[in-house]
Design goal:
Length: 756
């Protein structure tokens, strides 16, 4: 299972709390001091953010979890992408002050894309001033994450009623509505559990709460709502509830043993979204998170229709590749059938390569433990694979590869580029080797050589900063980083090709003998409603039967003629003959090919590249596209005008002015929130500091601007916003894809590229 969320929601802190509670750690580390277990890279400790996902096996009661802590920053979305591909369930965190944020929706969509149905929501940071359980629940509905969020716990800000009157922030306890008990934490993070009475009259006079405690009147309503809402998805539970007497205490007598199986079944079907709450920093609620992860999230046998037998053929997915100075190449794998044993040979079904396994390791972040086997369902690390990359399928033998490969992991498209200049000619080879190694560990880093210049493409400015620091720290290479530049794209030209301009055969020589290579293409731009293939960077490439052609690296047999044609197409699409930009939104169908029988199939790679390039020359230059972002800027009322003026001056397109609580994606969203019917929304008084803040003047003075803007104009936006808002402005952004540019902007881009 993975912990996923927007940046700074507390994933790494919750991981530390879990490791402490499960007795893996004696003392929890802190993000602020750079002492956490899973953030062990120098850049992670220096910046206080997670850059790469880290996997740790956690033992809790009768369960073993493979816990994966993921980054929250959009620039490292590839790490969430690869983790989402191999997990069975996820815990999604929300900062209870901010609610659902931009990247919360981003990681939610990634989980949808890889079919991770079962999720638990953890409302974190309830100890902060302004944290609100109620607002966070409403935020889930407003942002349409799930129509049926179901609160399994209620927060107790304090066991002293006077703290509620003073609007004191904090969290000292939780009410577990399923097990019907109270958890109370002391200042050292240790808890005591108290069962709640099952009689309504006794509940008002219990020793756990003072007589006038504001939480007590809401307990029966919360449990009644939980059981009523859950019974909508279970006939058995519905019948049990209908047979109860109509007294206020009736629902309190339903045992956890009756509720838990129905809750688990509904979670596995994704009918409901279980919601827990607490404070990872204070270790409040961590035990409950682990209990409910074990009870509700699926095991490997719950996610497949047929459970593989113990002696089934070995089948694994390599979901992450890491370089270590001492251990060499480390391949993270998830075992989908069979058992992986030490010192065995395996076969890479994706690349058609044999690999020798030297060691099997369970990785505890930076620390490792050698094991003899990796059984079905486990996540572990193989040391010794030389050719394997992220997304490859590993099997026991070549015969097992005939069953096909497991679904791949698709890297997101790069949007920002920078040139890399080795300090001397002698450094060139070491820089290229380091870049190749880095792109193997992080597939969202793309490397290309363009007109004698070495270019690195990444997901954002921060991503490129990390690439720069990792090249220096981990590979010790000498180079200078050029200016960051946005990655533009060129579309397909629509000029009619005259009969005399149709590209003919490509002529070359092999062993002094002339040969002709012909490849026939059908090329056109994609229609607006047609979706591009992310494996081909937004293009669609088909074979002669009309089926999608896999990318060149995905062919198990690299001598296959179509694998070589795919190599040629890939080379041409990466650099347009007009602008040297990558081509996008192009539909290419390979109609056929001809080459001499005695020639190697590799001649098709060169032939298809040259012929396709001639086609694009004949079609003329297509429209240029640049990456846009969707932006939400929250500022005080008095600086709203300055923020709007700055956005419009930098090519921004205003969508809406709203309250600062509206999310980045909601500014132009016509679809309304999910209805509150059948959802228990707790009262505002359960979060005293938030109910006080909501009525204050400062909360209502914040305004939000929603806009589209070109990424090229927003690379230094944090500095601009800080200056114009006096340091009070904050912003969120998310990728909004590529958009066609105007004629004037097209000329600007061509001048910038030196092509005008």
């Amino acid at each position: 299972m993975a912990l996923v969320a927007h940046i700074d929601s507390g994933k790494t802190t919750l991981t530390e709390s879990i490791l402490l509670k499960s007795s893996y750690l004696v003392e929890a580390g802190s993000v602020d001091t750079g002492s956490t277990t899973t953030d062990f890279l120098p850049a992670e400790r220096e910046r206080g953010i997670t850059i790469q996902s880290a996997s740790i096996p956690v033992k809790w009661k009768d369960w073993t979890f493979n816990l994966i802590d993921t980054p929250g920053h959009a620039d490292f979305g590839m790490e969430v992408e690869s983790a989402s591909r191999v997990i069975d369930g996820a815990v999604v965190l929300i900062d209870s002050v901010e609610g659902v944020e931009a990247q919360t929706k981003g990681v939610w969509r990634q989980l949808d894309r890889y079919g991770v149905r079962s999720r638990i929501m953890f409302l974190n940071k309830l100890d902060r001033a302004g944290a609100s359980f109620r607002s966070s629940m409403l935020s889930l509905l407003a942002h349409r994450l799930h129509p049926k969020p179901m609160a399994l716990t209620l927060p107790i800000a304090s066991f002293d009623s006077a703290d509620y009157g003073r609007a004191e922030p904090g969290i000292q306890g939780l009410v577990d509505l399923v097990r019907w008990e109270v958890w109370k934490w002391d200042s050292e993070g240790k808890h005591t559990r108290y069962p709640l009475p099952v009689d309504a009259d006794e509940l008002e006079h219990t020793d756990i709460f003072p007589p006038d405690h504001p939480v007590v009147p809401h307990l029966i309503e919360a449990r009644t709502s939980l059981l009523d809402n859950l019974s909508m998805f279970s006939e058995d539970l519905m019948e049990s509830l209908l047979s109860l007497p109509s007294t206020p205490s009736a629902y309190l007598t339903v045992s956890p043993e009756q509720i838990m199986p129905e809750l688990r079944a509904a979670t596995l079907r994704n009918d409901i979204l279980p919601v827990l709450c607490g404070s990872a920093f204070k270790h409040v609620g961590t035990d409950l998170v682990m209990d409910y992860v074990g009870e509700l999230l699926p095991s490997p046998t719950d996610t497949v229709e047929v459970v593989p037998k113990a002696n089934a053929p070995l089948r694994m997915l390599a979901w992450k590749v890491v370089w270590d100075k001492r251990k060499g190449w480390m391949t993270f794998v998830r075992v989908y059938s069979g058992t992986m044993k030490q010192q065995t040979k395996i076969y890479n079904a994706t690349r058609g390569q044999r690999e020798i396994v030297s060691k099997l390791v369970l990785l505890y972040a930076a620390r490792h433990e050698e094991v003899d086997t990796l059984p079905y369902g486990s996540v572990g690390v193989i040391i010794g694979c030389k050719f394997t990359r992220t997304g490859d399928t590993l099997v026991a033998s070549m015969n097992d590869a005939l069953d096909g490969s497991l679904p791949n992991i698709v890297p997101p498209p790069a949007v920002v580029s920078a040139s890399i200049i080795p300090q001397s000619h002698a450094d060139m080879q070491s820089v290229q080797d380091a870049l190749t190694s880095l792109s193997r560990t992080d597939p969202s880093v793309r490397i290309e050589s363009q007109e004698g210049q070495l270019l690195v493409h990444g997901m954002g400015s921060l991503h490129l900063e990390i690439v720069e620091s990792r090249l220096r720290d981990e590979w010790n290479v000498q180079f200078e980083f050029g200016r960051r530049r946005v990655g533009y794209r060129e579309g397909c030209g629509v000029q009619a090709i005259a009969e005399g301009d149709v590209p003919g055969p490509w002529q070359t020589q092999i062993a002094g003998k002339p040969i002709d290579v012909s490849v026939d293409f059908d090329i056109r731009p994609l229609e607006e409603e047609e979706k591009g293939d992310p494996l081909w960077d937004g293009n669609v490439v088909l074979d002669k039967t009309g089926k999608l052609l896999p990318p060149p690296d995905s062919f198990a047999n690299q001598l296959d003629p179509m694998a070589n044609v795919a190599h040629g197409i890939s080379n041409t699409l990466s650099s347009s003959p007009h602008s040297a930009l990558p081509l996008s939104r192009v539909r290419i169908q390979v109609k056929g090919y001809r080459y001499p029988v005695q020639a190697p199939t590799s001649v098709l790679a060169g032939g298809s590249a040259v012929i396709l390039r001639q086609y694009f020359r004949a079609l003329g230059m297509g429209p240029l596209m640049e990456p846009y972002i969707r932006l939400k800027v929250a500022v005080n009322e008095e600086t709203l005008g300055k923020a709007v003026k700055d956005l419009t001056e930098h090519g921004g397109e205003l969508l809406d002015l709203a309250t600062s609580s509206t999310g980045v994606s909601e500014g132009d969203q016509e679809v309304g929130p999910y209805p509150e019917d059948g959802v228990y929304i707790p009262p505002a008084e359960l979060s005293p500091s938030a109910s006080y803040l909501k009525g204050s003047a400062t909360a209502s003075m914040r305004r939000a601007v929603h806009a589209y803007a070109p990424l090229s104009q927003m690379l230094d936006y944090s500095n601009r916003l800080r200056a114009l808002s006096g340091g009070h402005g904050i912003f969120e952004m998310e990728n909004a894809g590529f958009r066609q540019v105007s004629e004037s902007r097209r000329l600007e881009i061509l001048r910038e590229l030196g092509r005008a």
